[in-house]
Amino acid sequence: MVAQRDSRGYALSEYAALCVHGARSGIDGHPCENRAIMTRMLAAVGDPREFCDPAHAPREVRLLHARASESLAATTGQESAALDQEIGATLRLLDGALLASVFGSAPSSAVYRHLWRLLAQGSPAASANDLAGITFALPVVIVVAIEGSGSGHATLPAVLSDPAALEALLREHGALNGSQTFALANALVAVETIDLPRLPDLHASHASSPSSLRPVLADLLPPAPIRATGKLETVHLRFIVGHAIAAAGANLLRDTRVGPWGTSFAQSLTRQLKPQGVSLLALPRAPQSLVAAVQQGRAAQREVSAQLFVGNALRKFRASVGEPTAVISAHRAPDVATGGELRLSLSSPFAARAAEGFRCALLPGDRVGDVLAMLVDLLRDCRIDDVRVIEAVHADRDPVTGAPLLFKAENLADATDASPQQVC
């Protein structure tokens, strides 16, 4: 049996060391000796997700999907641009329910990504002679655990006692392209609060100054408490929403990197959130549009969870039986929103019962190869030399045990439809 962790349960640990080196940093990197094999492998792994039959979507939704497909297949940039202009204008007029339906019933990841790009480009703006109100969000990945013996639990209310201190740090470092006219809400909110069904309402919020918008944002943005249970870290995703006033056309959110403000911002946020007896690590991302923040926040939560899993599992293996073998495979997963995920197992023939597994859910706009590359890069940076990737798509459950199916190196022969490749 392979002990399991997943990118939603997040019972993981050992992030601190990985935070220094980073799964994609390349510090002390060990490049794969056969990059050609790795490139072919990334392209060959199957997509386990199940996308909707467009025939079941409402007519106006099907039309948008069809227009997106036409744009992707267009033979000229002019033709594609005309279609994209039509699609973008339509997306901006939809209410939250219909907007969610458009993306929830997308017939492919390519169509989903194309619609997402057009929605992200279509943030509301005032006319050329007006000031524009911009609603933005900072994704924050938060890792918590109970200190000491790890017994009991605690709940963080997710309410900021001093949002002005965080605003001051962003202003000091020009985090919003130098803008000084903005305010942050005093709550850490869940992804559902700013996702597609709520997007039109949040974009419709406006005021003559950011500070006068605080009461409006408070009604729209209820805090999402964070629960810490046990000594193993759990990973949570929250957002700090803000509103800025800028000259129309000004791009306050062009810098997608966390600048010099990041460390001080994280420390201030930790002080405002941390209850007694709880360890807390806050990892803020740069301010972004609501659409972009949701996507990057989910991906960041998943990547941090993978880093924690690998760090924790490696500590166990290296303290007992030595280096593990990693196996990555694609699986159907009915309990995942998209119906598919990648699974990573770490195992050793010297300790059959010590195997560990991680379930990495695929988001609808993901390229499977990108998520696979994230996992392979992480394993490489952690100096795991034996990494094997199984091509094709596999079932959710082991037919014998009924448990989620995860492959170990010694039973790869069971993957009869697979072509396992050693990539590093």
Structural account:
The protein has 424 residues and is of the alpha+beta class. The chain has three domains: 3-50 and 321-422, no CATH class; 58-121, no CATH class; 131-248 and 253-286. Helix content is 37%, strand content 21%. It has 13 helices and 13 strands. The strands form three sheets. The protein has a six-stranded mixed β-sheet, with helices on one face. Strand 9 (325-332) and strand 10 form a beta hairpin. Helix 1 (15-21) packs across helix 12, helix 4 packs across helix 6 and helix 7 packs antiparallel against helix 11. The longest helix has 31 residues, at 290-320. The chain is globular, with a radius of gyration of 23 Å.
List keywords for this structure.
13 helices; globular; 424 residues; six-stranded mixed beta sheet; alpha+beta; five-stranded antiparallel beta sheet
Unreliable parts: 6-33, 125-129
Total count of domains:
3
User: Roughly how much helix do the residues carry, as a percent range?
Assistant: 25-40%
In percent terms, what proportion of residues is strand?
15-25%
Shape label: globular
Number of helices: 13
Instruction: Give the class from helix and strand content and strand pairing.
Output: alpha+beta
Using only C-alpha atoms, the radius of gyration works out to 23 Å
What does the average pLDDT come to?
84
Largest sheet: 6 strands, mixed
- The termini sit apart by 26 Å
The largest beta-sheet arranges its strands as 1-11-10-9-12-13
Give the ordered list of helices and strands.
EHHHHHHEEHEHHHEEHEEHEEEHEE
Count of DSSP E strands? 13
SSE map:
Blueprint: E1 3-6, H1 15-21, H2 35-44, H3 59-73, H4 77-93, H5 96-104, H6 109-121, E2 131-146, E3 153-156, H7 163-172, E4 182-189, H8 191-194, H9 199-204, H10 214-220, E5 226-229, E6 234-247, H11 261-273, E7 278-284, E8 288-289, H12 290-320, E9 325-332, E10 340-347, E11 356-361, H13 368-381, E12 387-394, E13 421-422
Parallel strand pairs: 1-11, 9-12
Antiparallel strand pairs: 2-6, 2-7, 2-8, 3-5, 4-6, 9-10, 10-11, 12-13
